[in-house]
Structures are given as C-alpha cells and as structure tokens.
C-alpha cells in the first residue's frame, strides 16, 4: 500500500474513520469553491507503466482546524473516469485526497487547493501528490503557514514535482521511501515553494 505522508497519512486515516460523512454536492454558493478534476494513478501493464483513472474511489476533503491540524471528511466517490467534485468553504488551503485501487494495489492521490474562487479545476496525479506532501509537511514542521501556501507556492511545488519525476525514471509512486525522498527534494529545490526550482535542480 502506498503511503504519501507516512505517519501523517496514518493519523489522517484515524481521523477519517471517526469524522467521515457524506455530501450530495449541492450547488456552490457564496463563500464556496467548487473543486473539479480527475484522479489518475500509475498502473503497471506488462513492461510499461501508465496512468489510469481511479474509478469508484473515495474522495476526502481535508481542512485545517483552529489548532492547525488536518481534519478530514469523506465527500463522495469518483465516477468511471475518475472525475470528482468537492465543495469547500473559502479558506487558505485545503487538501483533496482520492483513495482507490489499481492493478498494483491500494493507492491514493492528493492535491493542494486554495478555495478563493467559485470554480477551481485541477487533476490529481503523482506529481500533485508529491507537491501536496511537500506543502503539508512544510506547514507541519512550522516552515510556512497555511496562508503562505498560496497559489504561487502550490504551482512552484507542482512544477518541481513534475520535473523531479521526469528526471527520475526509476521513481516508484508505490514506495513510501521514494515518495518521501521526492517530497524532500521538492521542498529543498523550491525553498518550500517560495521559488521555482532551478532548471538543473534534479540532474
């Protein structure tokens, strides 16, 4: 089973077990951002790996509480194409997690979102997951605040995560140690998202 944040995901699973609830996804209103996208995860097919949509996967919205801890609630499931929809109240930053199955086993993909506009569209994949891990761990160890993890920082982290994965052909998204190494590398290369990674950061 792939674990993106290590101990963090374990603690989140405990929270989700006790806080889970469902939503029928009513219309977005004042102060609500509707988050849309597709969730993709790697799957081995013979000698090659391709990204496939996570069908019928659990969609979880994770928000920071007043004590700065992530709290989560189940808000739906993906359709046959991995599409998800989440309504989030306006706030600094939230995490959307989609947990499902591929032929390689249980997995999840995550992404950071800044709910400050009526509609936000972004797909989730290994790169957004690594970037999410970088942002969440940076907040968790006090390097940055929730408010500092804005759209620019998120974009810098995601761009760096894609560059890291492209430069690391042996990267295994199902190996927690490799994911942790990617998270650390992205944090260092971007100064926790403050700057874009240098062109040669991962070579």
Task: Characterise this structure.
The chain is of the alpha+beta class and 203 residues long. It has a single domain (7-190), classed as Immunoglobulins (Immunoglobulin-like), CATH 2.60.40.10. Helices cover 30% and strands 31% of the residues. The chain is built from 4 helices and 9 strands. The protein has helices spanning 7-19, 126-140, 151-167, 176-190, and strands at residues 32-38, 40-45, 48-53, 58-64, 70-77, 83-89, 94-102, 105-113, 119-121. The strands form 3 sheets. It has a 4-stranded antiparallel β-sheet. Strand 2 (40-45) and strand 3 (48-53) form a beta hairpin. Residues 1-28 have low confidence and may be disordered.
Structure characteristics:
4 helices, single chain, alpha+beta, globular, four-stranded antiparallel sheet, 203 residues, Immunoglobulin-like, three-stranded mixed sheet, 9 strands
């Amino acid at each position: 089973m792939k674990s993106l944040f290590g101990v963090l995901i374990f603690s989140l699973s405990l929270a989700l077990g006790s806080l889970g609830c469902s939503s029928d996804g009513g219309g977005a209103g004042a102060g609500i951002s509707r988050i849309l996208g597709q969730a993709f995860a790697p799957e081995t097919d013979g000698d090659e790996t391709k990204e496939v949509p996570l069908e019928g996967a659990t969609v979880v919205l994770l928000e920071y509480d007043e004590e700065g801890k992530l709290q989560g609630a189940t808000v739906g499931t993906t359709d046959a194409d991995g599409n998800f929809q989440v309504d989030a109240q306006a706030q600094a930053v939230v995490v959307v997690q989609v947990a499902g199955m591929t032929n390689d086993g249980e997995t999840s993909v995550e992404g950071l979102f800044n709910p400050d506009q009526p509609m936000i569209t972004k797909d989730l994949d290994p790169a957004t997951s690594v970037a999410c891990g970088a942002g969440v761990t940076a907040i968790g160890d006090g390097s940055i605040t929730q408010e500092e993890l804005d759209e620019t920082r998120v974009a810098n982290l995601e761009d760096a995560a894609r560059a890291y994965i492209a430069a690391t052909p042996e990267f295994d998204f199902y190996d927690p140690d490799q994911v942790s190494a990617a998270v650390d590398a992205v944090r260092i290369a971007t100064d926790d998202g403050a700057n874009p990674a240098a062109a040669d950061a991962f070579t």
